[in-house]
Structures are given as structure tokens and as C-alpha cells.
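Bug report (template v2)

What were you trying to do?
Predict the complex of my protein with 4'-deoxy-4'-aminopyridoxal-5'-phosphate.

What happened?
Run completed; filing so the output is reviewed.

Input:
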Amino acid sequence: PEKYQSMPYSRVLEVYREHLSCELVYFPDPLLLHQGHMQWLFDHEGNRYLDFFSGIVTVSVGHCHPKVNAVAQKQLGRLWHTSNLFFHPPIHEYAEQLSALLPDPLKVIFFMNSGSEANDLAMLMARAHSKSTDIISFRGAYHGCSPYTIGLSNVGQFKMKLPSGEGCQSTMCPDVFRGPWGGSHCRDSPVQTIRKCSCAPGPTGQGGRCTPSNMWGACFFVGLLSTDCCQAKDQYIEQFKDTLSTCVGKSIAGFFAEPIQGVNGVVQYPKGFLKEVFQLVRERGGVCIADEVQTGFGRLGSHFWGFQTHGVLPDIVTMAKGIGNGFPMAAVVTTPEIAKSLAKSVLHFNTFGGNPMACAIASAVLEVIKEEKLQENSLEVGTYLLLKLAELRDEFEIIGDVRGKGLMVGIEMVKDKASRQPLPREEVNQIHEGCRRMGLIIGRGGLFSQTFRIAPSLCVTKPEVDFAVDVFRAAVSQHMERRAK
Ligand code: PMP
């Protein structure tokens, strides 16, 4: 890494405590980063870390990717800013590229600067179009921290303690691992962790009677035989209908979903669930919004967009984070009809949204994803990672679940497999710290911060996965030894 003189670590800590508002920092002695290159980070002492969280699922193609950097530098010397009052080709070129990646009729783009801003606008659109108020999101959802979106964000620590979220309704998250009805054989992941579930009896007659002692075997068999998510999905649908019945009036404005929940700890829903919910929402006059802030741009491997993995077509798609590889950029894409409804309600304007720098960078990101076949890499390397982690799950009593798709992976830590109680935060912290000491950066999520999240840049390789899994195994083993003492 490049060596440069800068503020000493002790002063950085003081400035952080005295002047900076951010409360969410990993580790008691937070990392002081000096440089990044692709999937690698370097701290102030020159230590190297494999970055398996990519700045919260954001650095999609690698830190300081040479091609993206070159494009950014070129644009820096050409034009930074238009305030959207004037035209500039990189903006229109990017709009054309992005719209080509979305199915009809999702063709009208609004550029924004962050995920919260994008979801704010999507809420406004849903209300303008439906002429209703209520918007539903899942418990455990994270859609932003702005005064509007905070009402949709239902992860414990982000829940607003002041009156907020007028017209926002939360509904039960169909979490197939932690939820009451199980059904984890029904999720779209190469790893099928099977737990006690309420699936309909299969030909073996075992499905409805899984007990903790036979839950892996019996349900697994039923899971293989069942093509649908049977009762678990249906039970969650009943909950959704119950929420609909509590909404104000006959119609609702919309429904927000992350195709896989990120902040909540890579939570997946039963297959077919979103499809049924979209139908119920539309029957009530609402629009369906896919929040692709974490799941878009090839992260899930099998598809470019997360909604495609559920076989649904949203009315509005919001995106941020990976769209700009870490440069502030976001977008809302919708139908001409919904865009018209918004225009009737407000003259929408955003000074920085889709500025020349952001658009040039986002174009380069798309080109890199295509040229380097990063979506394909996400599928291949992500599946390899998931299967290796599943072996660890079977090895350690405190790894309750491994799940995800492509390079969006969750490892849920539990006290023991039978109870599925979250592993106490202090213990999860120690394992987290252990990974960091051995040169691996991973993330955290879930209501109790009990889930490790892995979402590296999409360029990671299988040898790097081997390294990460070895480090994780060592960190968990060391923790088990400490626990045994
Ligand atoms: N939606 C999702 C799914 C997110 O994960 C986040 C950020 N964690 C947001 C929206 C908000 O994005 P931002 O922090 O850019 O406002």
C-alpha cells in the first residue's frame, strides 16, 4: 500500500468521539483504513484484510477498480455537475444502459443519491399513484433512515423512538429459519438448512411430524419431494392478509420488500411467497416495490435483479449501493403510468441525482460487471462459499443456519441448534474480532446482531473463499475452546 503521513490513530479516535455523529462502528478499536484495492483493504499499519463485506454490500466490482477509476478521472476533467438543468451525454448513455436491464414496462428512471432518498421517492410515487396512504413492509426490513423511510425500517436498533412512520404498517416477516412455521427447505438457496417445519405430509407421511431429533432427516426428504412451500408459506400469507385487513380504508398505497433482507441478516422468504403477496397488494390497489439496494446488479448470481429470483414483476424498483461501487448514486425505476401520477402531484427535482460523475461511474460499473462476468462469478463462487459454510454449520453447534444466494450470505449464530436462541452478542463479537485479527472483514446483521453477513465485491475468487472459510472456522473453534474453559 501507498505510505502517507496522516492523523495518528489516537487523534482519529478523539475526533470520532468529539465530532462525529456515527454510532455504528465495528470493533472496540475500529479499523483505520488507508487504502483499498479490489477485494482488499489496508489499514494504517499496512495490515491487509480480505474485505468480505465490501463497505456494507456496496463496492460491487472492487475498491478502486482500475477501469472505474480511469472513467472517473476522465469525467473529473470534463464536467462534474449540471444540476440536471442541462443535458450531458454520460447521463443519457447511462439511462439507456440501465433501462435496457429492466423488463417492460419499467422504463422511467429517477436518479437519486442514496437508498433512503430512492425509497422516499418510491413511497411518494406509491401514494400519488394509488391515492391511498398505507404502505406495508416486513418486520426486520431496512429501507432507509430518512424521516419517511424510517417508518418502513423495522430492524430493532433502527426503530425510531419518536412518533414517525405515518401510514406505515409492518407485517410478519416470513423468516423460514426463525419464524414460527419454518419451511427453510422452501427458500431459494443452494443450502437447505432444514428445521422443524409445518410442511404438509409428503408421501412418507413425515412432514407434519418433524421433531428436533429427526428434523434434519425427515423434513429434508419431504423438502426434496415438495415443489411448493406448502403450509409454511400459506401460514405467512394468512398473516399478510391479516395485516391487509387492518389497513385504513379499502385500498393500500403499496408494499415494499427486499428480495432478500440484508440488514436483518440475509433473511429469505419461502418460494412463491412474494408472488402471492404481490397479487394481494394489487387486488387492494397498491403498487409493489422491490428494494434492490443490496440485491441488485448481479449480487444474487442467478439473476441480475433480486425480484427475478421470485418470479415477480414490481411496479417500482429502487437501487443504490452497488450501482456506483461506493460512489453516491441511486435510482428509482418505474412505469410511465406511475411516473405520470407522480408528475401530477409534484414537480420532482434533485440537484445531485444522476450527476455526470455518478452516471459515468455507474456506466463503468455496468461495463465491468459484463466484461468480467461478475454475475456469473457471483453464482459460482457464492455457491462454492455457501456449500463450504454448510459444512461448518454441520460441524459446530453454534452455527444455526447458513443461507443466501450468490454473494449475499448469512451465517446465523445460535446458543445451540435445538433452541435456535441467538448466540449472545458478546460471544458473536469475539468471533467477529477473531476474524478481523486473522485478516478477514465480515459484517453483522439481525435483530440481536447474531448473524454474520458476507457480501464481498463480486470479483472474489475460490482461493479467497478458502481463506475466509479457514479463518472463520479458526475463529469459531477458538471461541468454542474459550467457552469450554
Ligand atoms: N434499502 C436497503 C435494502 C438497504 O440495505 C439500505 C442501506 N443499508 C437502504 C435502503 C438505505 O440506503 P442508504 O444508506 O444509501 O440511504
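What did the reviewer find?
The domain at 89-167+248-371 is CATH 3.40.640.10 (Aspartate Aminotransferase; domain 2). Confidence is low (pLDDT under 50) at residues 196-228.
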